[in-house]
Amino acid sequence: MYQKKEIVNKLRSSGLRPTKQRVLIAKKLFDRDKTFHFTIETLDKKINKKGSEKISLATIYNTIEAFTNAGYLKAILTSKSKSYYDTNIKSHHHFYDEGTKELTDIDYSQIKLSKVPIPPKGKKIKNLEVVIRVQK
Hints:
Helices cover about 30% and strands about 20% of the residues.
């Protein structure tokens, strides 16, 4: 599990100032055994529970953007208006349950793609990840 000192060092090493709010958010995100999939709204609810120290929604948005840009989180677009974030930054795929609005990891090796389009001229494919939508 992450200790506060480890979080502070990690933030500093990527050029992020380890503010009290960033450290608290990092602890919520990374101090866990399993991958954590979340939206900004669900993270806001987890962080700003009754009786806990409050962090503004704008600070949460800015921190998640900074963590994503630093490579600590991966953004996953599930619809035109909804992004999820993933603490597992390795290449992998997802099931997206449209009923429960939950993401579940799929190991990268479990999906085999036989034909991938040629990228536009001057571009190369950096990564390919699949989101499979499921429903009841």
